[in-house]
């Protein structure tokens, strides 16, 4: 192999291998991360006969090293000589799949799953499947947990005798003594069901599913809900009622809120999996109950699904179901005691208007939107405002504008800066929908007030907002409404506000174009080069660099260059630095 | 450079409150309370027919009346609704009070029929799905726990149950039909309650059950095992770890010698990994107690325990490191000299790292070992091994540590070593410089090695087709 380089080139490799034994974890880790290089240098033969046994023996290391090792081995197939020899990787990965630390184990399983595909069907039965069996009957829970993730990758490619054994092992793990193992099995139930023949789905999987769904531990039961989606998808419609629905009904009314939460959280998937008929008969009442659940967590999860659930209802009865069954629950949620519930609802409720159409929206939904716009919790109001576009399409935003304005103003002045930040981000959207007149009259002053907010993040967002507004309303609008106010701040006694002028100019010059920039903005910037505060002066240099490309070359030479040269001789080191930078970027030297 | 001129002194307005105040300040509201998750909003008002007091009826009627009262107390009230059923809530409270007194002082009340009724009443009241924690980021160290709203009844039920279990007439052989595995499992789940008052009662209840029901002992240990494993490897959330460890402390105390493999496995595979959990400080005292109990039972476990602690030694959390050092000192307090010799090298390599920690509390905690007479005697006996391990760190900190108190402590330690073994000390001082140089050289060699390796990879990249068979 590395013959052309002579033995010399192997020296670093020898040291690297030595480093795998070093006392310092960090050094071992560095070395293990170069494992592929070591293997490459050793060649496939020595990797198989020397390196891998060595690695298998040193598995009692720090978890961090083991994690790196587990990951590396998943990509080692070529380095041991290709698919023909891939089974050599199984012993070290098997040990790694039994360690205590979950992260390491999971990575080992991931790598095992990866290399399983590189095994020939024969090797899979001779080498891989016995490993799965050993793990599945290990003493300590860790190996059995790992086994759960390996059944589905080997099942499709082995003979029917071995298949029967695999099913038996999976069955055993589903009723394992340790809840950790049952959880692992339950979480892989759906995946395993997908690779099984339909007859075994009906005979094996269903009974396991039913058993797991009534486990004594709620942490196991809730995982069965997840599996329910895959299982229901696999079964023919006529079997769902008898095989799946009793369990699902029971889960939706489980005494543990965690299980009910899971049902609510997976509701759209469940709805798709069981189809329209069962949805109408079973899921609608179940959904109503979840929306009225005694735990806020469950109500919030269900509220989040309101729009999706309604969208996916069968078209022939959609409107009736929504109006008679869902809407009454939604109305109650608008005045829920828990703000997370209200806020979850507010994030989807506007979506109902497209489904229900104009008249229903005005009659039934509008009062709810308006109520939520007045909610005491800012998140609720924000969520409504952020989804205005859905309503706009159906009834136009004007219907809302009366209530919208106070809500916006209040959010704009909220004590929490993150709330203020959030509402700023919706300004361009609102401006577009409300139109320029409404904006000038009601919202412009808010946008200007943010420019002098005491939190930098707000001033920054306000600057960015101005750019987007100019893009919407045009340069002329900018010149008449925004630019004078921005430039006025250049004389503010607070240097932070003076700097805001510069930041706004940076943001606006391109959108406003050459004329406005040269005529109105540039003189102000140049004048500010005499500011007493160094921070303002070096921001002048930065601004000039930024707006330079918008200006014509004559202006650059006659007006900008002298000022930058003056700043380049400033006594402050930062001012000098940025002035010089601007000179070189604008090629004025 | 922020040159503030006189023109720029207007401070930004600070009249608005921002979201950065400390949690503890923000949460100074009233204590929160919550109730079990089983109540669907109010149904009809509850009516219980008042019964005569037990002491007012003839003795032969008392057992029957006792049963009736137990049945009445199975009714559970909604305490989140502070206005509903006030009269009946009060009636149940006084009945429970009466039952508590009755089981404490009466004789001959415990008929065989009473057992299932007692267990049923207790189950109806205490077994409930615990509600979700009020905030996702509930921090037991910083936040007030959420208190159980139905405590006025719940407390009396627990009180009653404990008196019942402790009563002289109580017969485990009858009770075991009702206090079974399923009962215990539900009891253990309640240890996750956020209310510390409830966990305290649960601790006593579980302790009594463990003491009286021999057939349940292995089951209880196994379930605690599962709770801990889930806590360590899955959720990192369980409120009752400290309480369960406290019970285990006394259970371990009672283990027969030689220890069973099951118990050793519990030590190594469950108790030691518990040290890795983020909220260690909430149960560390109880955990360390359990560990020391084990070592006092069987000193040969010292090596695996210390190796385990070294494996999980905190890498970034200084607060935890101080806890580890504290626990290690407790272990060293009871260590046998023969065991000490087996573990001293890796142990003092870690201690030497701690001593040179830039965090002065860690360094200080480690240096305090030298104030411990027993540890000192062990170090002295093995100074020829320990001194070379410690010397470089001590010597370096004595010159560089930022904290004068640490430097002073290090001087004392160096002085102690000098007195212990002056020949070795002088030798190490003499070779200190050349040793450092050798280390630096090695460091340099390593750097070069990595460089060479990169070259090698580059070259290999060019002709990789030739190496990897396809």
TrEMBL record, chain A:
<dbReference type="GO" id="GO:0019888">
    <property type="term" value="F:protein phosphatase regulator activity"/>
</dbReference>
<feature type="repeat" description="HEAT">
    <location>
        <begin position="560"/>
        <end position="589"/>
    </location>
</feature>
<dbReference type="GO" id="GO:0000159">
    <property type="term" value="C:protein phosphatase type 2A complex"/>
</dbReference>
<keyword id="KW-0677">Repeat</keyword>
<dbReference type="GO" id="GO:0005634">
    <property type="term" value="C:nucleus"/>
</dbReference>
<dbReference type="Pfam" id="PF22646">
    <property type="entry name" value="PPP2R1A-like_HEAT"/>
</dbReference>
<feature type="domain" description="Phosphatase PP2A regulatory subunit A/Splicing factor 3B subunit 1-like HEAT repeat">
    <location>
        <begin position="276"/>
        <end position="357"/>
    </location>
</feature>
<feature type="repeat" description="HEAT">
    <location>
        <begin position="205"/>
        <end position="243"/>
    </location>
</feature>
<dbReference type="InterPro" id="IPR054573">
    <property type="entry name" value="PP2A/SF3B1-like_HEAT"/>
</dbReference>
<protein>
    <recommendedName>
        <fullName>TOG domain-containing protein</fullName>
    </recommendedName>
</protein>
<dbReference type="InterPro" id="IPR021133">
    <property type="entry name" value="HEAT_type_2"/>
</dbReference>
<dbReference type="GO" id="GO:0005829">
    <property type="term" value="C:cytosol"/>
</dbReference>
<dbReference type="InterPro" id="IPR000357">
    <property type="entry name" value="HEAT"/>
</dbReference>
<feature type="repeat" description="HEAT">
    <location>
        <begin position="326"/>
        <end position="364"/>
    </location>
</feature>
<dbReference type="InterPro" id="IPR051023">
    <property type="entry name" value="PP2A_Regulatory_Subunit_A"/>
</dbReference>
<comment type="similarity">
    <text>Belongs to the phosphatase 2A regulatory subunit A family.</text>
</comment>
<feature type="repeat" description="HEAT">
    <location>
        <begin position="12"/>
        <end position="50"/>
    </location>
</feature>
<dbReference type="InterPro" id="IPR055231">
    <property type="entry name" value="2AA_helical"/>
</dbReference>
<dbReference type="Pfam" id="PF22956">
    <property type="entry name" value="VPS15-like_hel"/>
</dbReference>
<feature type="repeat" description="HEAT">
    <location>
        <begin position="244"/>
        <end position="282"/>
    </location>
</feature>
<dbReference type="InterPro" id="IPR011989">
    <property type="entry name" value="ARM-like"/>
</dbReference>
<feature type="repeat" description="HEAT">
    <location>
        <begin position="521"/>
        <end position="559"/>
    </location>
</feature>
Automatic annotation (TrEMBL), chain B:
<dbReference type="GO" id="GO:0005634">
    <property type="term" value="C:nucleus"/>
</dbReference>
<dbReference type="GO" id="GO:0072542">
    <property type="term" value="F:protein phosphatase activator activity"/>
</dbReference>
<feature type="region of interest" description="Disordered">
    <location>
        <begin position="1"/>
        <end position="42"/>
    </location>
</feature>
<feature type="compositionally biased region" description="Polar residues">
    <location>
        <begin position="1"/>
        <end position="12"/>
    </location>
</feature>
<dbReference type="GO" id="GO:0000159">
    <property type="term" value="C:protein phosphatase type 2A complex"/>
</dbReference>
<feature type="compositionally biased region" description="Low complexity">
    <location>
        <begin position="33"/>
        <end position="42"/>
    </location>
</feature>
<dbReference type="InterPro" id="IPR002554">
    <property type="entry name" value="PP2A_B56"/>
</dbReference>
<dbReference type="GO" id="GO:0005829">
    <property type="term" value="C:cytosol"/>
</dbReference>
<dbReference type="InterPro" id="IPR016024">
    <property type="entry name" value="ARM-type_fold"/>
</dbReference>
<dbReference type="GO" id="GO:0007165">
    <property type="term" value="P:signal transduction"/>
</dbReference>
<protein>
    <recommendedName>
        <fullName>Serine/threonine protein phosphatase 2A regulatory subunit</fullName>
    </recommendedName>
</protein>
<dbReference type="Pfam" id="PF01603">
    <property type="entry name" value="B56"/>
</dbReference>
<dbReference type="InterPro" id="IPR011989">
    <property type="entry name" value="ARM-like"/>
</dbReference>
<comment type="similarity">
    <text>Belongs to the phosphatase 2A regulatory subunit B56 family.</text>
</comment>
<feature type="compositionally biased region" description="Basic residues">
    <location>
        <begin position="23"/>
        <end position="32"/>
    </location>
</feature>
